[in-house]
From TrEMBL:
The keyword NAD applies. Gene3D superfamilies: N-(1-d-carboxylethyl)-l-norvaline Dehydrogenase, domain 2, NAD(P)-binding Rossmann-like Domain. SUPFAM superfamilies: 6-phosphogluconate dehydrogenase C-terminal domain-like, NAD(P)-binding Rossmann-fold domains. The keyword Transmembrane helix does not apply. This is NAD(P)-dependent oxidoreductase. Residues 169-284 form the 3-hydroxyisobutyrate dehydrogenase-like NAD-binding domain. The lineage of its organism: Bacteria, Pseudomonadati, Bacteroidota, Cytophagia, Cytophagales. PANTHER family: CYTOKINE-LIKE NUCLEAR FACTOR N-PAC (PTHR43580:SF2), OXIDOREDUCTASE GLYR1-RELATED (PTHR43580). It comes from Nibrella saemangeumensis. Keywords: NAD, Oxidoreductase. Residues 4-156 form the 6-phosphogluconate dehydrogenase NADP-binding domain.
Amino acid sequence: MNDSIGLIGLGSLGLPLAENILAAGHPLTVYNRTPHKAKPLGDKGATVAASASEVAQTCRYVITLLSDDAALKEVTLTDEFARNLGADGIHISMSTIAPQTARQLAEHHARFDARYVAAPIFGRPAAVAAKQAWVCVSGDAEAKEQVKPILSAIVAQGLYDFGDEPSTANVVKLAGNFMIGAAMEAMAEAMTVAEKNGVSRQALIDMFSSTMFASPIYKNYGTMIARQVYDENVGFRLPLGLKDMNLVLQMASEVKAPMPLAQLVQSRLVSALAKGRENWDWTGLAYGASEDAGTHS
């Protein structure tokens, strides 16, 4: 087995990641449950595998970027996948999943001497393409040291190590996504009350995102919320946002940590989906504040 990289999942983040891996000169094998998404990468030199287990058999490093826990378990929580990965193989899971799922995968892989590293990613597709995402890692110490240079070369402007417990990086990822959702709700409410008092939504966020709240979340998401155009430049769809908020509340319930603000964000997402907005970006949860105030168009 060589140092080739396998990538399972060619969605909005997986596709630019695959392009980066090829551009860096790594041998790449890809698999996607919807086969036609893999063809353009095959035309660019990637090997297109017929199954996830085939990827594990031919690649030392296997990255997964799948939409949810069920999809990840379906293709990697099998004896065949773990056996094919073997003692030299490392599964790098970049999906946003429940901490319990990360522990389950790490334990299952260990039965076959394969190693597991959690490496969930913070970044929209453009940030991934520009290798400007942030990545949290946790899991086997030796395996992490092997994959960190790879992650730095293909996707991350920064890596943060949260220890040897496989699930901790996913705890951080879910906590971060909750904070983003809460920030979007706060921006939506602030812009709505400002607008009803004669202040431009854009002027408000221009000031705050350049001063007290100078961060990509307020600057980039804030501009989308100010414009109230949520079905363009969709990087993370509303159903995935709801999936993540459900995971946040599940995680909180397991340790008896009340999260009333997370419940509010979850409710916004449910309401948006009930109104047929499945194809909106998850920033569209912010539209609920305008609807409640009677200022929506």
